[in-house]
Amino acid sequence: MAGIEKITDEILQEAKVKAEEILSAAREAASEIEAAAKAEGEAECETIVNSAKKKAEEVKARAVSQSSLEKRQAVLLAKQEIIENVIGKAYADLENQGDEAYFAMIRKLLIKSVRPQEGEISFSAKDMARLPEGFAQAVAHIAEAYGGKLSISKEAAPIDSGFVLKYGGIEENCSLKALFDSMKDRMQDAVNAVLW
Description:
The protein has 2 domains: 1-96; 98-195, ATP synthase, E subunit, C-terminal (hypothetical protein PF0899 fold). The relative contact order is 0.08. The chain is built from 6 helices and 4 strands. α1 (2-95) crosses α6 (184-195). By secondary structure, the protein is α+β, with helices and mostly antiparallel strands. It starts with a helix and ends with a helix. It has helices at 2-95, 99-113, 125-129, 135-145, 176-182, 184-195; strands spanning 118-123, 149-152, 162-167, 170-175. The protein has a 4-stranded mixed β-sheet with strand order 2-1-3-4.
């Protein structure tokens, strides 16, 4: 029996050593798995943080870009409003100048617009009421100087200022509004160049 106990003790001793080796290997494997999982988790965490930082920077860049665009649009709108006000004031100043200066301007516009044909010139009701004495003769002389003939219409033109020329069935709108509208882009560029 002592032999069986000895063999049993040896087997138990070997089993203990083997179990200790297995436990040690298992602990080492668990430690490696834990370290790998920790490293993987940290790497994934860093990736998530970097991705979040990148997205935050993109959102910030878009917000800055949008803000810059909105600022430029607001400045442009303000500039356009100022330009419109300047042009509107110039129009009002021309339209409301004294009779002598106003009709001197009308003569200059007529010289640029008259044709070597027979026709009629129409003024607004407001202008017809304030035509200076001898203006009909001045209109006739200007037309004759350019080989044409013009008479002043008895009917008022549906305009605020300036005149309408009628040659045959064709009308040429020489109202201040029509002239301003036709030169609007050039006037805006000129005012823009002066102001900014």
